[in-house]
User: Fold this.
Amino acid sequence: MCGVYIHVPFCKRKCIYCDFYSVCSDDKLYSDFVNALNRSVENRADNRIKVDTVYFGGGTPTVLESSQLASILNTVKNSFDVSHNAEITVEANPCTVTLESLRELLKGGFNRISFGIQSAMDDELSALSRLHNYKQAREAVLNAKKAGFTNISADIMIGIINQTRESLIDTIEKITSLPVCHISAYMLKVEENTPLYDMIKRDGNILKSIADDDELSERYLLMCRLLEEKGFLQYEISNFAKPGFESRHNLKYWRCEEYLGFGPHAHSYLDGKRYLYDCDVLTFIDCNGRPEITYTDTDVDKAEEYIMLSLRLAEGLDTVMLASLDKKGRYGNIISNAVEINRLSDEKLINISQNGKHISLTKRGFLVSNTVISRLLNR
Amino acid sequence: MKKEQIRNFCIIAHIDHGKSTLADRILELTSSVELRDMEEQLLDNMDIERERGITIKARAVRLNYKAKDGETYVFNLIDTPGHVDFNYEVSRSLAACEGAILVVDASQGIEAQTLANTYLAIEHDLEVLPVVNKIDLPSADPQSACEEIENVIGIPALDAPRISAKMGTNIEEVLERVITDIPAPKGDDNAPLKALIFDSYYDQYKGVIIFVRVKEGTLKVGETIKMFATGAEFQTVEIGYMGATSLVPSGELKSGEVGYIAASIKDIGDTRVGDTVTSVEHTCSEPLEGYKKVNPMVYSGIYPTDGAKYPDLRDALEKLRLNDASLSFEPETSIALGFGFRCGFLGLLHMEIIAERLEREYNLDLITTAPSVIYKVNMTNGDVLYIDNPTNYPDPGLIASAEEPVVSANILAPSEFVGNIMELCQDRRGTFKDMKYLDETRVELHYELPLNEIVYDFFDALKSRTRGYASFDYEMKGYQVSKLVKLDILLNGEVVDALSFIVHTDKAYARGRRICEKLKETIPRQLFEVPIQAAIGGKIIARETVKAMRKDVLAKCYGGDITRKKKLLEKQKEGKKKMRQLGSVEVPQEAFMSVLKLDE
Assistant:
C-alpha cells in the first residue's frame, strides 16, 4: 500500500519560525498551480499502485478553494487505485476555513483534517505571527465537527516565545476538551534562514523568553504525561492519538513504507528509489513538474533508515525485521552489542522487550533520540 | 676571491625590531633578488614565519656588494630568530660569523632579547655593529636609543647608523659599516679541512643538504668528507653557495666562505648540527669547538588523533629534527591517547610551532598534552629520578624530596609597571633579586622563577599587565627543592593520564578547580552525567559535573524528507570522529589543550 502526498506551497502569511517551502501568492497562480499539479499526478498515473492514504500538506492547503482541493483529490483517485476506506487528510489554518468550506471538503472526499492551532494563548500566537487567535481556532474545530469530520487533529507547540509551564498546561487542557482525537506536538526549533533566527541575531533578549533545552525537556515530559491522562497515547516522538486515530499516512514514513509526493520540493519513495521535485512553484508550473531520482537505497541504507525511523515510534524497532533488511548483517546483531545497549537501558533511555527482540526509546530517550540513534548506528 | 673581501655576519635583534625588514632591504640593495621576486620577509619562507611575523629558522644567503671604495665584496648574511626559545638557532648562526648587526628599535630602545642576543654574540667573540632602526616613527628617539646601547651594553654606539629599514633610509651606510667594522674571515686554504655545520635540511632529490662555514682548508666536489662526531663518510656531489632564491653550485669552498654540501646523504642521523666536517684525505686532528648546546626545557606528549597515523608522525618528527636539532622525541604510550611521542622543546612558542608545522606541513591531526618541565625526584632509597612526564611521577611515599627547575629571569619595562610586574612574579612564586634603572623611565628587574610557572602563559600575562611594553628573557639557573604534588584529573571516576600534571602544593587547589571548570566548558553534554574531579593521591580536591544531555531530537520528519535527518546523523558521526573516547566519556581534542589556557 502506498501513500500520496500533495504539497501546496502557499501561505497567507509566512510564520516567523517556518523554514519549509511556501510562498504568498494570488488566485491566478493558484489556479495555474492546481492545473500543473493535476498534470503531474496524471503523468504518473498507474492504477496498479494501491493507495490507502492521501495527505494534503503545506504551506496551507486551505488557501486554495475547497473545489480546487477536491479536483486534485479526484485526479489522484482517477490515477491510482485508491481504496474506499483510505485516510484522506488536509492540513488547515483555522482562519482559512468556514463551516461551508469545511462541508465542501468533506463532500469532496476528505475525511481527516489537521489544524495548526499551536497554542490556546493569544499572546503566544501573535508572538509566532500566526494569523488566527484561539477563539477562531476553537470555532474552526467546532465547525469541522459540525460539518461532519470525525477525525480531527491539532498541532500544538512547545517552547513558544512567552510560553510558561502554566500556559502550556492551559493550552493542553483547552485543546483536549475540543473534539480532537489526534495531537501533534512539536518543539520550537530556531532554524537558520527564518525571520525568527534573524530576530534573535539582532536582539539576543528574545532568547530569554524562549525555554532552554532543559526547560523544554521538562515541558515535553509534562505534556506527554498530561496527554496520556487525557487518553492521547504517544505513538511517535511528536504524535499522540486516541486509540485508532493514529495518522496512517505519517506512519508510512516511519515504517519505511512507500509514498508518492507531488508538488514543489515534495519527496517520493518507491521501489527503493527516492525522488524529489527539486524546484520552486514557478518552475513546477512551467515544466509540468517532473521529479528526479535523487537516490537509490542500498541494503545498508534501508537498514539505517529502518533504525532511524522505527525508533521514532513507540512501537520501536523489531530486530527480526532489521535482520531481514540488513542482508550483510551490519546491524542485524545490534542487540548483541551488550555494553552499549545495557548502558542505554540502565540509564532508562531505551526499553528492551522481554524476548529481547524489540527495542524502543523511553520518553527521556525520545528527547535525546538523535544521539541514541547515532550511537546505535555507529556500532 | 680574496678573504679580505668576504664578510660573514648575522643580524640580531629583539623580536619586532625590524631584523627581517633590514634583511629584505639589504637583499634589494645588493640586487640579489629581481624586483619581481621580491616579497616581504623574503628569508622567512615558512608560512608560519610570515603569518606570525617572526623568524624561526636561521637562514643564510650570499650577496655581492659594490662598495664605495670600488671593490666588490661578498656578504654572507645569516638571518636569525629573535625569540628566547630560539637562542639555540641564534647560537648556531653566530658560530659561522665574524660579526653581528645589532638592530635596536629607536622608539623602544633596548629590550630583554636585545641584551640576551648581544651577550651571546659577545660570548662568540663577534664584532657587534649597532644600528638604530625605525627612525621614521613619530615616537622615535634615536639619540637615547644610542645612549642606552652605550650605557647598558657598553659598546660604542653614538655613531651607529640611524636607519629606517621600512623606508629604505640609510641602508647603504649599514653596508659600508659592515665592511669597515666587521673583520674579514681568517683561515688557511691549504690547512686540513675544518668546516662547521650550522644548519641542514632534507631535499627529496639531493638528500641532506648541509650548510657549512669553512674555517680552515678547502672543500672540493668529488672529495670524500667525514663527519667528526659520527665518523660517517660521504663523497661530495655538489658544493656551492646560497643565492637569494636558490642554491648556486660553485665546485669548491675555501676557508672563510659559507656554503652548502650535497653528498647523497640519506640518513639524517649522520649529520649533526654543530659537528665538524673534515676531509678523509687531509683530516684535521681536532674538531672545531662545538657551540653552546641547549637542552629542551619543556616536554609534552604529541599524539596522532588517528592512531594509524603513528608511523607518519614519527617520519614527520624525524624530518623536522633534521632542520631543528633542538627538537627531541621518544616514543611513549598513554592509556587515554594511545601511541605517541614525548617531545622536548626549548619553550612554549617552540612547542606551538612544532605542533603547527607537523599539522600543516605533514598534514597530521594531533593532540598535544600540557607541557611539563623536568622534575628531579630524590627517592627515599637514594635513587635520583628525572621526570618529564607527570604520569611517571612516583608515589609520594617513596619520595624523599622533589626539586624543580628555576630560571633567572630578566624583565625590562617602563617604570610605571613595576608594581604590576612584581605582583605577577610574586604570584608565580618568584624570588626578587634586584632592580635597576636603565634611565629615568625604564627599569630592569631580575627575578628567579620556577620554570613551570612560566612555561604556560607567563609572557602573555606579563604583556597584558604592562600594556605590551615589557620584554622578557630567561636562562636556566638550576634546581631548587620544592613542595610538589601530582594532580590527577578523573572523568567519570577514571584517571585520564594525559591530563595529570605536577604542581606546587600551594597552587594545587586553585589549579585543580580551574581545570575542572575549564573541562566542564569544553566537554559537551553526553547521554550520561559526567563527573569531572581533580585529585591528589586519593583525595578529591575539586569537582564539576557535566549534566546529562536533555534534548537532542529532530521534532518533525516532514513530508517524507528523510534527507535532513540523515544529514544530521552524518554530522553526528563526523563530530564523533573528532572526539576521543575515554572510557565511556567522549572528550573533544581541545580539552587536552584548553587546560593550558586557564587564564582565558
